[in-house]
Amino acid sequence: MSSNLADIDFSQGLRHCDGQDSLYREVLVCYLDQFRPLLDMNTLLTDSEAARLQLHTLKSLSATIGAAPLSKLAAQLFVKWQQQDEQQRAEAIRQVNTNLALVNGQIENYCNNVNLAD
To answer: pTM above 0.70?
Structure first.
């Protein structure tokens, strides 16, 4: 289940960047800069607005890079955030972070192994 949520379609992400390898790699590096530290549980649980902003950003950027399952997971959490209690939110954040760590690893592997023509 976790690996399915961490799937990345790199060819789709590349299409979102108009097929420009260097631009796509730059987007991936920015994604890692933003999300390598994962989501901060304490911040998200204590600041609902920060949580909604982080989840929306994760949803959007994950879709852009081709990580559709993680994007959908973040979108679901974003929509349900206000209706969930703290324990449900914490569990959801743990699930997102588990899959986000796997996505980050795939991005790092992709960036380290893909050679650019330019």
So the answer is: yes
